[in-house]
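Checklist before submission:
- one chain only
- standard amino acids only
- sequence pasted in full

Submission:
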Amino acid sequence: MIRQVWNRLQLLCAQGVVALIGADKIQARVLDGEPLNNIDRIEPYGLSYRPKAGSRAYLFFPSGDRSYGVALVIGDKRYQMNLQEGEVALHDDEGNHVHLQRGGVVEVAANTKVIAQTPLFETSGDALIGGKLTVKNGFDLTGIGMANGKRIDETHTHISNGPGVPTSGVS
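Returned file contents:
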């Protein structure tokens, strides 16, 4: 009797390598080579992911029944980021990431672009753009506007040299 309980307990958990991935199920090969099919892949609320073949899966089998398993955690050290203690990151295998760094810095890295689908993008502080700024459908400028060190707001005037004569400068 005790031997049967011990055998069942040994079947509760396993560690394996993911072979095939579906939308909500995986196939894994546990470390003793046993292939396990139709293992449910559990995702925490608000976080969705699709692991790659070769990932490591930590499996649980209720009642020690290997015909029904649940992948509690799937990890992949091949793409692990180097983080400092206390940091958090969301990342993929292509180097795209959102990294909550020490000191209050949030770094977002995307290989192609970042798309924000929102009716308003707002910042409470300054914005620094290191590349070209393209504005579609016009813009509103409030406050002092400068271009190449010259004001371009409502205080900007040109010195007139008379009708039909080009202006001679900016006042």
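Reviewer check: The two ends are 98 Å apart (CA to CA).
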